């Protein structure tokens, strides 16, 4: 018998448990964000010459993004494990630790402090939204028109299926 693999939900397990799975959940959006930010820098701003300089620019931007993600997951889960509570303070600690990574990357104590407070408050707001079951930025129940630009069911073939009772016009 085969079991269906269920997607791991970050918020279903309390803080302090399943740290590796939680980092795995955040790995894909972190990788996409790091790649996008690094590509924007290479193409629009820094214009490095050669492969090694380009790779160095990608690492320069990707490493702190991954570090901040790891710091959030580790900070919130270690705080939850030590405090034995699943509340907003754990997420503030996680956000503040990722802000500290930003400060180290920018080599600025004041920038790190501001980033720690801002990311800590943002994390508290997100935890509040999760606990009260509403969305912070993008609603989860967006409906898309069939074949719309943002639809997941895109069919770019030449002979795509016509939904409903649509015809090609040659049936008449």
From TrEMBL:
Subcellular compartments: Mitochondrion inner membrane
Membrane topology: Multi-pass membrane protein
Main localization of the protein described in the UniProt heading: mitochondrion
Organism per entry: Asbolus verrucosus (Desert ironclad beetle)
UniProt record, GO biological process: mitochondrial electron transport, NADH to ubiquinone
Name of the protein in its database record: NADH dehydrogenase [ubiquinone] 1 alpha subcomplex subunit 11
Tree of life domain: Eukaryota
Entry's family note: Belongs to the complex I NDUFA11 subunit family.
Keyword field contains Endoplasmic reticulum: no
Keywords carried by this UniProt record: Membrane, Mitochondrion, Mitochondrion inner membrane, Transmembrane, Transmembrane helix
Gene Ontology cellular component list: mitochondrial inner membrane; respiratory chain complex I
Ranges annotated as spanning the membrane: 25-46, 58-79
